[in-house]
Write a structure and sequence with these properties.
- This protein is of the alpha/beta class.
- The chain has two domains: about 1-155 and about 325-340, 3-Layer(aba) Sandwich (Rossmann fold); about 155-320, Rossmann fold (3-Layer(aba) Sandwich), CATH 3.40.50.2000.
- It has helices at about 20-35, 65-75, 115-125, 135-140, 185-195, 210-220, 235-245, 260-265, 280-285, 295-305, 310-320, 325-340, and strands at about 1-5, 40-45, 50-55, 85, 105-110, 130-135, 150, 170-175, 200, 225-230, 245-250, 270-275, 290-295.
- The chain has a seven-stranded parallel beta sheet.
- The longest helix has 16 residues, at about 325-340.
Length: about 350
């Protein structure tokens, strides 16, 4: 099949550090090429996706000029005989394709804007527009309006080394953006109350609210002994960090749409202990690959019960449910369905 993939041109594909969607698209491209498909990626000009690249940019503050400029680019897809146009980016950027029979898939990695979905379904040619969601939590917000399929994000299993056993005093890990919604301060609280070491890795967003959160609720507890902050990590550092951790904490205070970092931890054999928000209970098998908790007390109990969890079970779950090969096969099946509609 001839497939066009589109992502917002904010960072290259693949990303060096943060960039969940870009990493998902990169592994999807690799698997689709293995299957014999021809893939063209529309993305940041500095991308190195291993397939044909059409680089494009958008302004820092996306506006009408960007909408018109990018739709002029994507409208050309109508004349290139693509079997599928699949976007992980802004649905506005394929608005020009909606009235035509060109098969289109829009993948949601975040909660959808319901008004946009309704408008797209209304103007799209019959049986030409399908949606995917990265979790059932996201899919249920769309399924009354359009055709939606849940396809979980994946992890490159070859990029994460399974470690069947860690030291008894292995650290807990928090990996993600340092901001209130991600629960960094809660992770510190859990570590202190369980007398465990904690390694915090991730970037601090530039916005003042996040800088203030770090300075007031995170920085005061960093002693670089029990509570360490090591900054952003690349793929190699992330693999080393996760495979040597006793567990990864996911104390999110918002409804996490998916959380790729959880699957990366599982691929290393590292269990995940998180709050029951968003897609966390879809990724974590409670009592087997981690614990799904309602509050900090349950999370503390979960940390104390880490030895009851099976690291091989974590790796097996990642291979069976979240591998790049599984994800790509599901997308391929959907491509065939949509292109034959």
């Amino acid at each position: 099949m001839k497939i066009a993939l589109i992502v917002n041109p904010l960072i290259p594909v693949p990303p060096e550090q943060y960039g969940g969607i870009e990493r998902v698209v990169y592994v999807l491209i690799r698997e689709l090429i293995k299957m014999g498909h021809h893939v063209t990626l529309y993305a940041h000009p500095d991308s190195q996706p291993g397939c044909e690249l059409k680089g494009y940019r958008e302004s820092e503050n996306y506006g009408l000029k960007d909408l018109l400029k990018i739709n002029l680019l994507t409208s050309s897809l109508l004349f290139q005989n693509f079997d599928i146009v699949h976007t992980f980016g802004r649905m506005n950027n394929i608005a020009s394709l909606m009235p035509f029979q060109q098969p289109k898939i829009v993948s949601y990695q975040l909660p959808p804007t319901v008004s946009q979905v309704k408008k797209a379904v209304k103007i799209a040619a019959k049986n030409s527009l399908y949606f995917t969601a990265c979790s059932n939590f996201i899919a249920q917000q769309i399924n009354q309006m359009g055709n939606v399929t849940t396809i979980y994000n994946s992890v490159d299993m070859d990029g994460y080394q399974f470690n069947p056993k860690v030291d008894a005093d292995a650290s807990l890990v928090f990996l993600g953006r340092i901001q209130q919604e991600k629960g960094t301060a809660i992770a510190i609280e859990i570590a202190l109350k369980t007398n465990k070491k904690l390694i915090i890795a991730g970037n601090i967003p530039d916005e003042q609210i996040h800088q203030q959160y770090f300075n007031e609720q995170v920085r005061p507890f960093i002693d670089q002994e029990q509570i360490r902050y090591i900054g952003p990590v690349n793929n190699m550092q992330k693999n080393d960090l996760l495979q040597n951790a006793s567990a990864m904490l996911m104390p999110v205070t918002w409804d996490e749409p998916f959380g790729i970092v959880m699957t990366e931890a599982l691929a290393c054999g590292t269990p995940v202990i998180g709050f029951n928000r968003g897609a966390v209970p879809e990724v974590v098998n409670n009592g087997s690959t981690g614990f799904v908790c309602s509050n900090t007390s349950e999370m503390i109990e979960g940390v104390n019960n880490i030895p009851s969890l099976s690291r091989p079970n974590c790796r097996q779950a990642a291979e069976e449910k979240f591998s790049s090969a599984v994800m790509a096969k599901q997308y391929e099946q959907l491509y065939k369905l949509v292109s034959s509609s």
